């Protein structure tokens, strides 16, 4: 990072000169004054030769052991940004480049979110790496994000040498201290012989129980220590306080659930991310199809049950469908599976599902009774419980819920998801529906930023299977979409990976366009550009008399900055098409509805990365909406 | 309601920081906290006193158990246990009341551990109430300095009260008044 800052300084000094005359010169002439012939380069081209060269020079280093341990955890891809304290690790990575792909993001936060995209789309542990100090602190948001959404990632940070820890050394931060509250677990490696055990434990903790982020802080001097004999890569773990394997349901609990289903005339399945993490989608579909119970999912649960299935009620909660919220409100049995009764789902807690008996299944005991008292609490894996329920459910247990289904069908007819669809503009909901139409027969991963576009994607894109929807749901981190799509693409090279983004969110990790181009990741970006921070603007319109307070993203002297625009968006700012082209990424802007379909088809047919800047009206609100802390009675539909 | 929780944790750096950080960040109020190594140097025992209703207690216990380095959490409430605080207190003897203070210390089974022309230092252990009443009694003499540990507690053997409940050494039952 410091080297980079320094290089930036020099680049700034020379930038003017360079940009005018020799803009295409290679970078090494910018960052060094040494004539090129004096720069030593090793002439080893393959990883195998590099390994041989390294082994000739020295024995296995701590860094080599950590990377080998990653490979033995079947890690195939790591997102790593180097710096002083992680250089030995990168040297070890380059020696293993034929066994482990290293992708260089352009910001550590991009690397962290890419690891999340990798994990969320594949179900495997995502891995990212950064140097000490600022590199490590740049990962913090991604760890907090992974904690709230239960995403298994292992983050490795370089640390200053052990002997100077605590002396405020250059690029030193106590990252374990900083991250305690936002990780599932964390390690500071203090002994050379702990490396293999720590890696093994970190992966085990990250992916078992309720998954989450694990941090490994690795001092540089231990990275550089060497060993003659290969270490034991499969040492016994030392986790006396961690036993996710004992969390199993009891047979009485299963009978209670079956009895509750049998007696219920108005049941609803309320399904969340836990269902996806436990791989329970098939078991869920079996139960739903056999009983006919309607299914509503949380934002994290989208894809756990096919979104276009007639039994699907779509998403519930603040921006959920009217009928899903009505159904939960009227239900006499709520089967809450892998969910945590988040405030964005429940609104006013006392009013939420107040007529119903609650069955709450979650692998994390602390979620049970946390926000809402459960009548039948089960601390266990959702998939395990569903399979046992399916096995125990007899034909007599299938409840008669025809009336309930008719009631729900009436609600669906009376209150469908609607939006203003006009010929004069590209409504964002239409854009998403058109995207769904054009990608219906492709394996499509969708990542999103945070805001209106995120909610519209959640409402209007029907996810057919799990692990195809990536959204920063708990933490709500803007800038999540582009790097997450990038990570999904790395994990699913044959899938169509898309980032549906807003202009505010996209700008927050825009540097990752460089990663798309340089690492050959053909991510497509559908930018719903309304020149505003749309979700905040919507709240201004609803709750602050429409007073604009820093939600316009154009120049401050434009009338829109004070909310007095004429509703037309003229020239957009920034010029995303030029920016993308500057990153060597194909791009186009589309403003007319008549042209949108073709423009989208052009993007989807492109082999490489592509940005489609779609200018949308800023007058649109995400509806329906239950204001924060209110109940379903207060639902706003227009 | 007041609860005494006892957590067995892995004895390594940062565990206490994590526990106290978790309690603070989730706004749980801790009246007292004591920590020390157990008979097995790999583990420490942390004893907490928490005030709150059953819902709060349930969350505190579950959030503690979620921490990877926390092995086991026990809630001693409604169970038969012994709890103790330890206090060191320096009382002024400036007004020539040394013997009076000594007498009080004896009544409370305190020990005099340091003497100077101007003060006595008394070591005293017991339940919170006992320590509080001792403080009240010596306050008029002038308390120069005072330090107290957090609460420590252990469960009594449950099934065989005869053998271990009252070994006749030091203080006796958990709900004694003394």
Describe this protein's structure.
The complex is a heterodimer of chains A (638) and B (178). Chain A is built from 26 helices and 20 strands. By secondary structure, chain A is α/β, with parallel strands linked by helices. Chain A has 4 domains: 1-41, no CATH class; 47-236, 3-Layer(aba) Sandwich (Rossmann fold), CATH 3.40.50; 254-414, TPP-binding domain (Rossmann fold), CATH 3.40.50; 428-615, Thiamin diphosphate (ThDP)-binding fold, Pyr/PP domains (Rossmann fold, 3-Layer(aba) Sandwich), CATH 3.40.50. Chain A has a 6-stranded parallel β-sheet with strand order 3-2-4-5-7-6, sandwiched between helices. Chain A has a 6-stranded parallel β-sheet with strand order 11-10-9-12-13-14, sandwiched between helices. In chain A, α6 packs parallel to α8. Chain A starts with a helix and ends in a 23-residue tail after the last strand. Chain B is built from 5 helices and 9 strands, in the order βαββαββαββαββα. In chain B, strands 5, 6, 7, 8 and 9 form a 5-stranded antiparallel β-sheet that branches. Chain B has a 4-stranded antiparallel β-sheet with strand order 2-3-1-4, with helices on one face. The radius of gyration of chain B is 19 Å and the shape is elongated. Chain B starts with a strand and ends in a 14-residue tail after the last helix.
């Amino acid at each position: 990072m410091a080297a980079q800052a320094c290089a930036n300084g020099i680049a700034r000094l020379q930038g003017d000169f360079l940009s005018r005359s020799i803009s295409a010169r290679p970078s090494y002439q910018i960052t060094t004054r040494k004539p090129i012939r004096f720069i030593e380069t090793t002439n080893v081209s393959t990883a195998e030769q590099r390994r041989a060269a390294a082994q000739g020079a020295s024995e296995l280093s701590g860094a080599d052991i950590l990377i080998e341990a990653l490979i033995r955890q079947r890690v195939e891809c790591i997102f790593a940004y180097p710096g002083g304290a992680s250089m030995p690790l990168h040297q070890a990575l380059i020696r293993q480049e034929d066994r482990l792909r290293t992708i260089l993001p352009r910001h550590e936060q991009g690397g962290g979110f890419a690891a999340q995209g990798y994990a969320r789309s594949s179900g495997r542990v995502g891995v990212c790496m950064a140097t000490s100090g600022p590199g490590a602190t740049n990962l913090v948001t991604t760890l907090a994000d992974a904690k709230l959404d239960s995403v298994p990632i292992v983050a490795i940070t370089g640390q200053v040498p052990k002997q100077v820890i605590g002396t405020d050394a250059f690029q030193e931060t106590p990252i374990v201290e900083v991250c305690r509250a936002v990780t599932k677990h964390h390690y500071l490696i203090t002994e050379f012989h702990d490396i293999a055990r720590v890696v093994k434990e970190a992966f085990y903790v990250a992916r078992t129980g309720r998954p989450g982020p694990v941090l490994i802080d690795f001092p540089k001097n231990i990275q550089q220590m060497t060993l003659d004999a290969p270490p034991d890569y499969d040492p016994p773990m030392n986790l006396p306080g961690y036993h996710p394997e004992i969390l199993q349901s009891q047979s009485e609990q299963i009978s209670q659930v079956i009895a509750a289903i049998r007696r219920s005339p108005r049941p609803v399945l309320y399904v969340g991310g836990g269902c996806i993490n436990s791989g329970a989608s098939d078991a869920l579909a079996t139960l739903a199809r056999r009983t006919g119970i309607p299914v509503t999912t949380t934002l994290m649960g989208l894809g756990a049950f096919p979104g276009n299935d007639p039994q699907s009620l779509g998403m519930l909660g603040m921006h959920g469908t009217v009928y899903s919220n009505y159904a939960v409100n009227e239900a006499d049995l709520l089967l809450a599976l892998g969910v945590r009764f988040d405030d964005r789902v429940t609104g006013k807690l006392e009013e939420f599902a107040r007529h119903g008996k609650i069955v709450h299944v979650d692998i994390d005991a602390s979620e049970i009774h946390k926000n809402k008292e459960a009548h039948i609490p089960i601390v266990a894996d959702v998939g395990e419980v569903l399979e046992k329920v399916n096995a125990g459910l007899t034909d007599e247990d299938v409840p008669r819920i025809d009336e309930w289904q008719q009631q729900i069908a009436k609600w669906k007819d009376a209150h469908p998801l609607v939006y203003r669809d006009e010929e004069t503009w590209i409504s964002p909901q239409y854009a998403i529906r058109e995207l769904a139409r054009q990608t219906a027969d492709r394996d499509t991963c969708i990542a999103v930023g945070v805001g209106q576009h995120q909610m519209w994607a959640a409402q209007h894109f029907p996810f057919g299977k799990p692990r195809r929807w990536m959204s920063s749901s708990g933490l709500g981190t803007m800038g999540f979409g582009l790097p997450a799509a990038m990570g999904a693409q790395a994990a699913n090279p044959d899938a169509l990976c898309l980032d549906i983004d807003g202009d505010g969110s996209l700008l927050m990790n825009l540097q990752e366009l460089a990663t798309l181009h340089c690492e050959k990741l053909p991510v497509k970006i559908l930018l719903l550009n309304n020149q505003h921070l749309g979700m905040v603007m919507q709240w201004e319109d609803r709750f602050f008399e429409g007073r604009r307070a820093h939600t316009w993203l154009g120049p401050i002297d434009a009338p829109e900055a004070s909310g007095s625009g004429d509703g037309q968006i003229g020239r957009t700012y920034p010029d995303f098409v030029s920016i993308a082209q500057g990153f060597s990424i194909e791009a186009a802007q589309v403003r007319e509805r008549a042209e949108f379909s073709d423009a989208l088809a052009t993007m989807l047919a492109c082999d490489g990365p592509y940005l489609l800047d779609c200018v949308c009206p800023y007058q649109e609100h995400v509806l329906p909406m239950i204001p924060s802390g209110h109940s379903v009675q207060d639902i706003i539909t227009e | 309601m007041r609860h005494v929780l006892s957590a067995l944790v892995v004895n390594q750096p940062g565990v206490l920081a994590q526990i106290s950080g978790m309690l603070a960040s989730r706004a749980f109020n801790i009246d007292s906290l004591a920590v020390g190594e157990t008979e097995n140097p790999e583990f420490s025992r942390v004893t907490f006193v928490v005030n709150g209703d059953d819902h709060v207690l349930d969350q505190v216990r579950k959030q503690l158990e979620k921490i990877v380095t926390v092995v086991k959490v026990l809630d001693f409430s409604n169970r038969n246990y012994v709890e103790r605080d330890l206090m060191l207190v320096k009382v002024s003897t400036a007004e020539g009341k040394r013997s009076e203070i000594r007498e009080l210390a004896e009544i409370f089974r305190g020990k005099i551990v340091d003497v100077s022309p101007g003060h006595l230092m008394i070591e005293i252990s017991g339940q919170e109430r006992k320590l509080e009443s001792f403080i009240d009694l010596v306050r008029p003499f002038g308390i120069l300095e005072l330090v107290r540990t957090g609460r420590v507690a252990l469960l009594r053997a449950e099934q065989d009260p005869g053998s271990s409940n009252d070994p006749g050494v030091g203080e006796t039952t958990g709900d004694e008044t003394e």
